[in-house]
Amino acid sequence: MPRFGFYLSLQHPAGRDPRDLVRERLELVALVREAGFDSVFAGQHFLVPGEVQMLQPVPMLGRVAAEAGGMTLGTAVLITTLLNPVEVAENAATLAALAPGRFVLGAGAGYRREEDAAFGVGADRIRVFEDKLRVIRRLLAGEQVTASGRGYRLEGASLTLRPEPRPDLWVAATTEGGIERAAELGDAWLIAPSTTVAEIRRGRELLVDRLGGPPRELPALREAVVAATDAEAAALAVPFLDPRGTSSAGRVPLEAGRYIVGGPQRAAGELEALLDAGVDHVIFRVQRPGVSHRDAMRTLELLASNVIPLLVH
Protein backbone atom coordinates (compact mmCIF):
# COMPACT_ATOMS: atom_id res chain seq x y z
CA MET A 1 0.00 0.00 0.00
CA PRO A 2 1.55 3.36 -0.99
CA ARG A 3 2.14 6.00 1.64
CA PHE A 4 1.53 9.71 1.23
CA GLY A 5 3.30 12.53 2.99
CA PHE A 6 3.40 16.31 3.23
CA TYR A 7 6.49 18.43 2.67
CA LEU A 8 6.27 21.33 5.08
CA SER A 9 7.64 24.27 3.11
CA LEU A 10 9.62 26.56 5.42
CA GLN A 11 10.46 29.21 2.80
CA HIS A 12 8.18 32.21 2.46
CA PRO A 13 8.26 35.74 1.04
CA ALA A 14 10.28 38.25 3.02
CA GLY A 15 8.27 40.62 5.16
CA ARG A 16 5.83 38.09 6.56
CA ASP A 17 5.61 37.85 10.34
CA PRO A 18 7.37 34.55 11.25
CA ARG A 19 4.74 33.91 13.94
CA ASP A 20 2.09 33.83 11.23
CA LEU A 21 4.21 31.43 9.21
CA VAL A 22 4.46 29.03 12.14
CA ARG A 23 0.71 29.22 12.77
CA GLU A 24 -0.08 28.50 9.12
CA ARG A 25 2.35 25.58 9.02
CA LEU A 26 0.66 24.02 12.05
CA GLU A 27 -2.74 24.43 10.38
CA LEU A 28 -1.46 22.51 7.37
CA VAL A 29 -0.08 19.75 9.59
CA ALA A 30 -3.46 19.45 11.33
CA LEU A 31 -5.18 19.26 7.94
CA VAL A 32 -3.03 16.39 6.64
CA ARG A 33 -3.24 14.57 9.97
CA GLU A 34 -7.04 14.61 9.85
CA ALA A 35 -6.97 13.67 6.15
CA GLY A 36 -5.03 10.51 6.96
CA PHE A 37 -1.64 11.38 5.50
CA ASP A 38 1.25 9.21 6.67
CA SER A 39 4.13 11.63 7.13
CA VAL A 40 5.44 15.19 7.44
CA PHE A 41 8.89 16.22 6.19
CA ALA A 42 10.82 19.49 6.18
CA GLY A 43 14.00 20.61 4.45
CA GLN A 44 16.91 22.93 5.02
CA HIS A 45 18.79 25.81 3.41
CA PHE A 46 20.97 28.59 4.76
CA LEU A 47 21.44 32.21 3.65
CA VAL A 48 18.43 32.09 1.34
CA PRO A 49 17.99 34.88 -1.25
CA GLY A 50 16.76 38.21 0.10
CA GLU A 51 13.26 37.94 -1.35
CA VAL A 52 12.46 34.97 0.90
CA GLN A 53 12.90 33.96 4.52
CA MET A 54 13.24 30.48 5.94
CA LEU A 55 12.56 28.64 9.17
CA GLN A 56 14.93 25.84 10.15
CA PRO A 57 13.63 22.23 10.15
CA VAL A 58 14.99 20.74 13.38
CA PRO A 59 13.28 23.14 15.83
CA MET A 60 10.20 23.28 13.59
CA LEU A 61 9.83 19.50 13.54
CA GLY A 62 10.19 19.50 17.32
CA ARG A 63 7.12 21.74 17.46
CA VAL A 64 5.29 19.75 14.78
CA ALA A 65 5.76 16.53 16.76
CA ALA A 66 3.11 17.75 19.20
CA GLU A 67 0.60 18.05 16.32
CA ALA A 68 1.54 15.06 14.21
CA GLY A 69 -0.39 12.26 15.91
CA GLY A 70 0.91 8.98 14.53
CA MET A 71 2.47 10.44 11.41
CA THR A 72 6.12 9.83 10.56
CA LEU A 73 8.36 12.91 10.92
CA GLY A 74 11.47 13.47 8.89
CA THR A 75 14.04 15.77 7.38
CA ALA A 76 14.11 16.06 3.61
CA VAL A 77 16.81 17.02 3.81
CA LEU A 78 19.46 18.18 6.25
CA ILE A 79 22.48 19.42 4.30
CA THR A 80 24.88 17.22 6.20
CA THR A 81 27.92 18.28 4.13
CA LEU A 82 27.77 21.57 6.03
CA LEU A 83 26.97 20.28 9.51
CA ASN A 84 28.88 18.71 12.36
CA PRO A 85 27.99 14.99 12.30
CA VAL A 86 27.78 14.83 16.09
CA GLU A 87 25.18 17.62 16.12
CA VAL A 88 23.21 15.91 13.35
CA ALA A 89 23.20 12.61 15.23
CA GLU A 90 22.25 14.22 18.56
CA ASN A 91 19.40 16.18 16.92
CA ALA A 92 18.20 13.05 15.15
CA ALA A 93 18.22 11.14 18.43
CA THR A 94 16.17 13.89 20.06
CA LEU A 95 13.59 13.96 17.27
CA ALA A 96 13.44 10.16 17.42
CA ALA A 97 12.58 10.47 21.11
CA LEU A 98 9.78 12.92 20.27
CA ALA A 99 8.43 10.55 17.58
CA PRO A 100 9.42 7.06 18.76
CA GLY A 101 9.87 4.71 15.82
CA ARG A 102 8.52 7.39 13.48
CA PHE A 103 11.50 9.61 12.65
CA VAL A 104 13.43 9.50 9.37
CA LEU A 105 16.73 11.30 8.85
CA GLY A 106 16.93 12.51 5.25
CA ALA A 107 20.38 13.74 4.25
CA GLY A 108 21.63 15.59 1.20
CA ALA A 109 24.91 16.94 -0.12
CA GLY A 110 23.50 20.36 -1.00
CA TYR A 111 24.26 22.33 -4.15
CA ARG A 112 24.37 26.08 -3.42
CA ARG A 113 27.78 27.73 -3.60
CA GLU A 114 26.73 30.37 -1.07
CA GLU A 115 26.15 27.66 1.53
CA ASP A 116 29.39 25.84 0.79
CA ALA A 117 31.35 29.08 1.11
CA ALA A 118 29.63 30.05 4.37
CA PHE A 119 30.55 26.71 5.96
CA GLY A 120 34.04 26.44 4.46
CA VAL A 121 33.28 23.50 2.16
CA GLY A 122 35.42 23.23 -0.96
CA ALA A 123 35.86 21.03 -4.01
CA ASP A 124 35.98 17.87 -1.88
CA ARG A 125 32.34 18.36 -0.83
CA ILE A 126 31.13 14.89 -1.90
CA ARG A 127 33.90 13.12 0.01
CA VAL A 128 33.07 15.27 3.05
CA PHE A 129 29.40 14.34 2.68
CA GLU A 130 30.15 10.62 2.48
CA ASP A 131 32.52 10.68 5.46
CA LYS A 132 29.98 12.52 7.60
CA LEU A 133 27.19 10.11 6.62
CA ARG A 134 29.30 7.19 7.80
CA VAL A 135 29.95 8.87 11.14
CA ILE A 136 26.27 9.78 11.63
CA ARG A 137 25.11 6.28 10.82
CA ARG A 138 27.59 4.70 13.21
CA LEU A 139 26.73 7.10 16.04
CA LEU A 140 22.99 6.45 15.65
CA ALA A 141 23.67 2.71 15.65
CA GLY A 142 25.26 3.04 19.10
CA GLU A 143 28.85 2.41 18.03
CA GLN A 144 31.95 3.94 19.53
CA VAL A 145 33.39 6.08 16.77
CA THR A 146 36.93 7.20 16.12
CA ALA A 147 37.04 9.48 13.10
CA SER A 148 38.14 12.91 12.00
CA GLY A 149 37.26 15.25 9.19
CA ARG A 150 36.38 18.81 8.36
CA GLY A 151 35.36 20.42 11.67
CA TYR A 152 35.27 17.30 13.87
CA ARG A 153 37.56 14.85 15.65
CA LEU A 154 36.20 11.87 17.59
CA GLU A 155 38.08 9.42 19.81
CA GLY A 156 35.89 6.52 20.88
CA ALA A 157 32.84 8.80 20.95
CA SER A 158 29.30 7.49 21.33
CA LEU A 159 25.81 8.83 21.94
CA THR A 160 24.30 8.49 25.39
CA LEU A 161 20.89 9.35 23.93
CA ARG A 162 20.53 6.31 21.71
CA PRO A 163 17.42 5.92 19.57
CA GLU A 164 15.84 2.49 19.42
CA PRO A 165 15.33 1.53 16.69
CA ARG A 166 17.91 3.50 14.76
CA PRO A 167 16.14 6.02 12.49
CA ASP A 168 16.18 5.19 8.81
CA LEU A 169 18.68 7.23 6.83
CA TRP A 170 17.40 8.42 3.44
CA VAL A 171 20.01 9.81 1.07
CA ALA A 172 18.91 12.32 -1.57
CA ALA A 173 20.43 11.87 -5.02
CA THR A 174 19.93 12.97 -8.61
CA THR A 175 22.86 11.27 -10.39
CA GLU A 176 23.93 7.66 -10.91
CA GLY A 177 26.81 8.19 -8.50
CA GLY A 178 24.43 9.62 -5.94
CA ILE A 179 22.07 6.65 -6.26
CA GLU A 180 24.98 4.26 -5.73
CA ARG A 181 25.93 6.33 -2.68
CA ALA A 182 22.40 6.00 -1.33
CA ALA A 183 22.55 2.24 -1.80
CA GLU A 184 25.86 2.01 0.05
CA LEU A 185 25.36 4.48 2.89
CA GLY A 186 21.59 4.84 3.30
CA ASP A 187 18.43 2.87 3.85
CA ALA A 188 16.65 4.46 0.89
CA TRP A 189 17.20 6.67 -2.14
CA LEU A 190 15.21 9.87 -1.61
CA ILE A 191 14.10 11.06 -5.05
CA ALA A 192 14.37 14.80 -5.72
CA PRO A 193 11.17 16.61 -6.77
CA SER A 194 12.48 17.52 -10.24
CA THR A 195 13.25 13.90 -11.19
CA THR A 196 11.08 12.67 -14.09
CA VAL A 197 9.23 9.37 -14.06
CA ALA A 198 11.58 8.06 -16.76
CA GLU A 199 14.59 9.00 -14.63
CA ILE A 200 13.02 7.29 -11.62
CA ARG A 201 12.60 4.08 -13.61
CA ARG A 202 16.25 4.13 -14.69
CA GLY A 203 17.38 5.00 -11.17
CA ARG A 204 15.38 2.18 -9.65
CA GLU A 205 16.96 -0.28 -12.07
CA LEU A 206 20.38 0.93 -10.99
CA LEU A 207 19.37 0.66 -7.33
CA VAL A 208 18.09 -2.91 -7.80
CA ASP A 209 21.34 -3.85 -9.49
CA ARG A 210 23.41 -2.25 -6.73
CA LEU A 211 21.37 -3.79 -3.90
CA GLY A 212 20.89 -7.17 -5.52
CA GLY A 213 17.11 -6.88 -5.17
CA PRO A 214 14.26 -4.40 -4.88
CA PRO A 215 14.63 -1.53 -2.41
CA ARG A 216 12.76 -1.82 0.86
CA GLU A 217 11.27 1.63 0.29
CA LEU A 218 11.37 4.18 -2.54
CA PRO A 219 10.31 7.67 -1.37
CA ALA A 220 9.92 10.65 -3.67
CA LEU A 221 9.37 14.35 -3.13
CA ARG A 222 6.88 15.82 -5.61
CA GLU A 223 5.75 19.32 -6.49
CA ALA A 224 1.94 19.40 -6.51
CA VAL A 225 -0.68 21.97 -7.48
CA VAL A 226 -4.25 20.69 -7.75
CA ALA A 227 -7.30 22.79 -8.56
CA ALA A 228 -10.79 22.29 -9.98
CA THR A 229 -9.49 22.31 -13.57
CA ASP A 230 -6.21 21.73 -15.39
CA ALA A 231 -6.15 25.36 -16.54
CA GLU A 232 -6.63 26.74 -13.03
CA ALA A 233 -3.89 24.52 -11.63
CA ALA A 234 -1.47 25.50 -14.40
CA ALA A 235 -2.15 29.19 -13.77
CA LEU A 236 -1.38 28.74 -10.07
CA ALA A 237 1.81 26.81 -10.86
CA VAL A 238 3.30 29.14 -13.47
CA PRO A 239 5.07 31.47 -10.98
CA PHE A 240 7.34 28.65 -9.84
CA LEU A 241 6.96 25.86 -12.41
CA ASP A 242 8.37 27.59 -15.47
CA PRO A 243 7.12 26.27 -18.85
CA ARG A 244 10.38 27.42 -20.46
CA GLY A 245 12.35 24.98 -18.34
CA THR A 246 14.67 27.59 -16.87
CA SER A 247 16.09 27.09 -13.41
CA SER A 248 17.80 30.39 -12.57
CA ALA A 249 15.06 31.23 -10.05
CA GLY A 250 14.85 27.73 -8.58
CA ARG A 251 12.07 26.74 -10.95
CA VAL A 252 11.58 23.29 -12.47
CA PRO A 253 10.37 22.61 -16.01
CA LEU A 254 6.62 22.46 -16.46
CA GLU A 255 6.46 19.15 -18.33
CA ALA A 256 4.73 15.80 -18.04
CA GLY A 257 6.30 13.25 -15.73
CA ARG A 258 8.08 15.79 -13.53
CA TYR A 259 5.34 17.20 -11.28
CA ILE A 260 1.70 16.80 -10.26
CA VAL A 261 -0.21 19.77 -11.64
CA GLY A 262 -3.80 19.67 -12.87
CA GLY A 263 -7.37 18.95 -12.01
CA PRO A 264 -8.11 15.81 -10.01
CA GLN A 265 -8.15 13.43 -12.99
CA ARG A 266 -4.88 14.69 -14.46
CA ALA A 267 -3.23 14.78 -11.02
CA ALA A 268 -4.33 11.19 -10.42
CA GLY A 269 -2.77 10.17 -13.73
CA GLU A 270 0.55 11.80 -12.82
CA LEU A 271 0.45 10.15 -9.41
CA GLU A 272 -0.38 6.75 -10.91
CA ALA A 273 2.63 7.01 -13.24
CA LEU A 274 4.81 7.72 -10.23
CA LEU A 275 3.53 4.67 -8.37
CA ASP A 276 3.90 2.50 -11.47
CA ALA A 277 7.57 3.52 -11.59
CA GLY A 278 8.04 1.90 -8.17
CA VAL A 279 7.64 4.85 -5.82
CA ASP A 280 5.79 3.79 -2.68
CA HIS A 281 6.01 6.91 -0.51
CA VAL A 282 5.03 10.20 -2.19
CA ILE A 283 5.75 13.41 -0.27
CA PHE A 284 3.82 16.34 -1.73
CA ARG A 285 5.29 19.83 -1.75
CA VAL A 286 2.37 22.21 -2.26
CA GLN A 287 3.71 25.62 -1.24
CA ARG A 288 6.66 27.33 -2.83
CA PRO A 289 7.25 30.97 -1.81
CA GLY A 290 4.41 33.04 -3.20
CA VAL A 291 1.79 30.28 -3.13
CA SER A 292 -0.93 31.39 -0.73
CA HIS A 293 -1.86 29.51 2.39
CA ARG A 294 -5.39 29.11 0.98
CA ASP A 295 -4.15 27.59 -2.29
CA ALA A 296 -1.84 25.21 -0.41
CA MET A 297 -4.73 24.03 1.77
CA ARG A 298 -6.92 23.59 -1.32
CA THR A 299 -4.32 21.39 -3.01
CA LEU A 300 -4.01 19.22 0.09
CA GLU A 301 -7.78 18.94 0.42
CA LEU A 302 -8.16 17.88 -3.21
CA LEU A 303 -5.31 15.39 -2.98
CA ALA A 304 -6.97 13.80 0.02
CA SER A 305 -10.56 13.82 -1.25
CA ASN A 306 -10.40 13.71 -5.06
CA VAL A 307 -7.01 12.34 -6.14
CA ILE A 308 -5.64 9.69 -3.77
CA PRO A 309 -9.02 7.87 -3.51
CA LEU A 310 -8.94 7.31 -7.28
CA LEU A 311 -5.82 5.16 -6.81
CA VAL A 312 -6.21 3.63 -3.34
CA HIS A 313 -9.23 1.45 -2.66
- Structural class designation: alpha/beta
What percent strand?
15-25%
- Cα end-to-end separation: 10 Å
Describe the main β-sheet briefly.
9 strands, parallel
Which features characterize this protein?
313 residues; alpha/beta; 9-stranded parallel beta sheet; two-stranded antiparallel ribbon; 13 strands; globular
Give the arrangement of secondary structure elements.
Elements: E1 3-7, E2 11-13, H1 18-35, E3 39-42, E4 52-54, H2 57-64, E5 72-79, H3 85-98, E6 103-108, H4 113-118, H5 125-140, E7 145-149, E8 152-157, E9 168-173, H6 176-185, E10 188-191, H7 197-211, E11 219-226, H8 230-237, E12 260-262, H9 264-276, E13 281-285, H10 293-311
Helix pairs in contact: 1-10, 3-5, 6-7, 9-10
Report on the structure:
41% of the residues lie in helices and 21% in strands. The protein has 313 residues and is α/β, with parallel strands linked by helices. It has a nine-stranded parallel sheet with strand order 10-9-6-5-3-1-13-11-12, with helices on both faces. A two-stranded antiparallel ribbon has the order 2-4. Strand 5, helix 3 and strand 6 (103-108) form a beta-alpha-beta unit. The longest helix is centred in the last third of the chain and has 19 residues, at 293-311.
Summed up:
The chain has about 325 residues and is of the alpha/beta class. The protein is built from 10 helices and 13 strands.
